[in-house]
Design goal:
mainly alpha
């Protein structure tokens, strides 16, 4: 049961890691209409912030409940990657 809870918290952590992309999406979309590479700096900044958030989450999990680090980290990273794929596809749609 504890593993399931760690995985569910990891899913929430992965979604929290994707928040910077949701915040900068309108700005990236507007800049991409003006020029193709306009949103790259904003996207890179959002990526760095997201990786920082994910790193902090995984380190906190290591210090709080290190026995369940693997299910937490796997679920957090998987959900984060899925969210980034969905974000990229919706951003590039016309």
């Amino acid at each position: 049961m504890q593993t399931v809870i760690a995985a569910l918290v990891g899913i929430a952590g992965g979604l929290v890691g994707a928040i910077p992309f949701i915040v900068v999406r309108p700005r990236m979309k507007a800049r991409m209409k003006k020029e193709g590479l306009g949103g790259i700096v904003t996207g890179l900044l959002a990526t760095m912030i997201s990786f920082l958030i994910m790193t902090v989450e995984i380190v906190l999990c290591f210090f709080i409940i290190s026995d369940y680090l693997l299910p937490f980290a796997i679920s957090a990273i998987a959900v984060f990657m899925l969210a980034m794929i969905v974000f990229t596809v919706t951003l590039m749609r016309k």
